[in-house]
Write a structure and sequence with these properties.
Layout lengths: L1 H12 L14 E2 L9 E3 L1 H9 L3 H10 L8 E7 L3 E6 L1 H14 L13 E5 L11 H19 L3 E8 L3 H18 L14 H14 L10 H21 L6 E4 L1 H5 L2 H11 L3 E4 L2 E4 L10 E4 L8 H13 L4 E7 L6 H10 L7 E6 L2 E5 L2 E3 L11 H18 L7 E4 H5 L1 H4 L1 H22 L14 H10 L2 H11 L3 H20 L7 H25 L8
Parallel strand pairs: 5-6, 5-11, 6-7, 11-12, 13-15
Antiparallel strand pairs: 1-2, 2-4, 3-4, 8-9, 9-10, 13-14
Helix pairs in contact: 2-3, 4-17, 5-13, 5-18, 6-7, 6-8, 7-8, 10-11, 11-12, 16-19, 16-20, 17-19, 17-20, 18-19, 19-20
This protein binds one RNA strand of 77 nucleotides through α2, α6, β9, β10 and β15.
Amino acid sequence: MKPYLRKIISKSLNQFNLSQKETPEIQLEKPNEPAHGDASSNIAMKLAGTLRDNPRNIAQKIVAGLEYDAKKVAAVEIAGPGFINFRYANTYLYDELATVLAQHSSFGQTDSLQGQKILLEFVSANPTGPLTVGHGRNAVLGDTIARLLEWTGAEVDREYYFNNAGRQMRVLGQSVRARYLEELGEDAAFPEGGYEGEYIKDIAHALVEEHDKDLADTDDISPFKEKAESLIFDDIRQTLERMNIEMNSYFNEHELYEDGSIDETVKTLRKKGLAYDKEGATWFKTTEFGKEQDTVLIKSSGEPTYRLPDIAYHANKLNRGYDQCIDIFGADHIATYPDVLSGIKVLGYDPEKVDVVVYQFVTIVKEGKPFKMSTRKANFITLDELMDEVGADVTRFFFLMRSPNTHLEFDIAQAKEAGEKNPVFYLQYAHARIHSILRKVEEEYDFTDDPLLDLLTHESEIQLIKTMIRFPEMIQSAAESREPHRLINFLNDLASDFTGFYHDCRILGEEKQLVQARATLARAVAQVLANGLGILGINAPEQM
RNA sequence: GCGCCCGUAGCUCAACUGGAUAGAGCAACGCCCUUCUAAGGCGUAGGUUACAGGUUCGACUCCUGUCGGGCGUACCA
């Protein structure tokens, strides 16, 4: 509908003989006041400056020049300082309702990103411990954005990037070794800053079962490290699967060393004069890109910092032919990605193709107090524990409810009592309730003719249809802005409008044709709820 | 110190990216189950959108400053 309105407005604007430059973008929005119609344009106000005329006069002229199809638009009004308000015709609403049913499980899909290949990198937690509630926001956000992009036509690959070398993993190996020796009854000094979690003991135990005492005398920590990595990764994969997340690939940072791209990256940076040696380390001249200080790429120990492989990794991704690469980062990485963008630009790639979604931290509230998590200190709540308590649906919903850009407060106690009052149930309940009604309708009626949708004239029915048909537009905006919470807000509105309809309009027991029309409407709503919940990765049960 | 993000109802958060009278959910209070699921609905109360300026037809949204919180500013990831 909006494209149609834009078209007719644009046509009417021809009367002013505006140049390309003078023609503002025609914005249409849904007024929050129903009295202001179904769509509203501020175009007259935008033009007031260039046309040097009163906005209401301009609006008059635009409206006078509008040619529209009465089957789509019922009325056009001028209101307030110069808004042009459109009211949709019911025939248009019935057509759209029919479209929902015709497209069923694909209603809401668009082709705006058709042909685009996107690589979405997320989670990317190193295998040093189980996924915690802190990782949850990243995981769920990434997966849901991927789903949104798929609904707008893109082909999305989900990738998990990790690094199994370096100091962290060394300490992990040492921690496992200490627990291993401990279990064998030998004296073992636990490494300073080691990983204290119970899961380390489980790994050690597995090693004892597998190798008995054979590893006790070796100084090599790699068997400990490798076992830890493999068991922890098994656990991570399982957690992700439970959350309805499936990765297409796991990318080991190590590959970048093996294929020489790390060396290549440094070489190129040097050649461009953007990398140099100082005090035994290799530095990246980030001051050239507006940073206050240069940053270290390779430490004097010879070990690269994470920035270097990060740059090489992004080059690698773009090299694989993706039109766009999206990263999901926590706020703590905010300072690093400008360096990555600078780096790949130097390497000859288009930084515009890299998009970073930064989400703010999750504050865990436990027993009414903020709770600081640390994987190392074993101060954490795992995603598995959370899902044991509230299930995967609530877990996903909780992380998606809020804008990525705000701090998310996660109250453990509140999440636990979620069975009673969690908002996700409101959506699932509406869906289940519709199916319950539809089951009864099927039992009692046998329809042979097509439904007469124009019997749907009640205010609640019209309202419900209007909300429902905004679905594709919502997906579009949620995908573009990478803000899944918009979809949740929309589904809440839809469920709420359905409940209004449910109270105002009975289905069972009415005259047969009306039963059919209303059941058809209800079916369409259930379809949209199911599609929306599907994008969120949440179940849409037919019974609760 | 500097950079990024945030500050909206008692609490947790929305507000279609500059639109018309700032909305939900919890919590509080008062109603509504012989009618398709009360995991629901209706109503009441709750606000100087942190504060002070500015930009314009119009500001929660943009610009400047102040205060408060988070994150970063590492030869840690």
